[in-house]
Structures are given as C-alpha cells and as structure tokens.
Amino acid sequence: MANKEVRVLGSWASPFVMRARIALNIKKLDYEFLQEQLGSKSELLLKSNPVHKKMPVLIHGDKPICESLVIVQYVDEVWSSGPSILPSDPYDRAIARFWAAYIDDKWFPSLSGIPRAQGEEAKMAAIQQVRDGLELLEDAFVKCSKGKPFFGGDSIGYLDIALGCFLGWLRVKEKSNGVKLLDETKTPNLAKWAVRFCSDVAVKDLMPDTDKLADFAKVLMAKFRAPPPSN
C-alpha cells in the first residue's frame, strides 16, 4: 500500500528521479510514485516546481521538495533513524558533495552529449570525455570507499546514488555506439562497484532494462531533432 504522505513525481526512465526513489528505498519508506508522461507536464508538477518545472519532486505531506540531490539530503535528514546516506564526517560529506557536483556539472553533460555530437570526430571526443571522467571517478572511489564496497563505505551512500543512477544510460550509450565506457581494465574498481550497486536491494527493481531504455532514448532523440511547430 503506497504511502499517500510521501509522493514522488517523475518518470521511470529519469536517472534524477531514480535518485529520490533509491533514497526512499534505503530508508525503507513506502511512497506513491506518480508517473509523468513524456511530452507533457502535470498540473501538480508545475504547481510543485514552479521555478524549474522539472522532475523529480518529492511531496512530503503538502510540502514539495525539488532537485534530486536536495531530495536525497532531505530524505536522509528527515528520516534519520534509518541507514545514513550522507557521510557523518564533515570532510567526507564535503568530498561526496564535491564529486556529486562534478558528476552533474561535468560528467553527465559529456555522456548526454554523445548522441548530439555532430560528426564522427566530435562523437569520439565526447566518448573520450566520458572515459576520462570515469578514470577520475575511479580514483575518487578508491579514496572515498577506503577499501569498502561502496563510495559510502559498507552500504550505498550519497555519492553512490549520485553516480549509480546513470548506469542504465551508460549501458544504452555503450550499446548504441558499440563502445565500452566502463572499462574493467582502466576502471576495475568502478566496474565491480557498478555490479554491486545494480544488484543492491534498494536499486535492482529501479534499474531500467537496457533495451527498454534504448527505445525510450530513440523517442527522446526524435523529439529533440524534430523541427519546432510553425505558428
């Protein structure tokens, strides 16, 4: 039975929506998932996030919280009796936030830029940017995990959620471009982490099927390339 007190507005295919849902799963919270339709935005979404008009939105009671990483932090603070998501040490917490910002501001744009690249040379440059970023994150994993299975230690934490939500889309880019991005030879620790992350109980039911997500990506790209409607 879904908890009407906690609702999430979003799409099954959105990695940012997945962040909010993983955080709720870690805390073992029931919630109602309200699916937004591609190409349209519900009145509830527009009312709940009038600034950006984007998903995800977490609605707790009658209070909307927007932006995926803000939602993850909110869930961690409000339901503090459950497993911790952010590191307890202030320095570790700052480092996790730094790398999460890097993922959103630098790494993910390079990943999403691969299909938009014009020409083979530009596409290969975008692919190399993704690989370079993963090598940086490999080093970050070694330092943050301190020899444990996840960025957050023994269990999934803030930085695991920040990066892990993109693994489905990473697989789509690998399949559609015939390349290996998460390379076991260059990023061995990250490759093993990805397997652990996807099989975790808080994640496995949310990680989308690669073929289904690839079909969704084709629809998205068709909309992106379609000419704007004439007046």
Description:
By secondary structure, this protein is α+β, with helices and mostly antiparallel strands. 54% of the residues lie in helices and 7% in strands. Helix 1 links the parallel strand 1 and strand 2. Helix 7 (167-177) packs across helix 9 (210-225). The radius of gyration is 18 Å and the shape is globular. The chain starts with 5 loop residues before the first strand and ends in a 6-residue tail after the last helix.
Portion in helices: 40-55%
What is the number of strand segments? 4
Contiguous helical run count: 9
**Helix-strand string:** EHEHEEHHHHHHH
Average pLDDT number: 93
If strands are numbered along the chain, what order do they take across the biggest sheet?
A: 2-1-3-4
Topology:
Layout: E1 6-10, H1 15-26, E2 32-35, H2 43-48, E3 57-60, E4 63-66, H3 68-78, H4 90-112, H5 120-145, H6 158-164, H7 167-177, H8 188-199, H9 210-225
Parallel strand pairs: 1-2
Antiparallel strand pairs: 1-3, 3-4
Helix pairs in contact: 1-3, 4-5, 4-6, 7-9
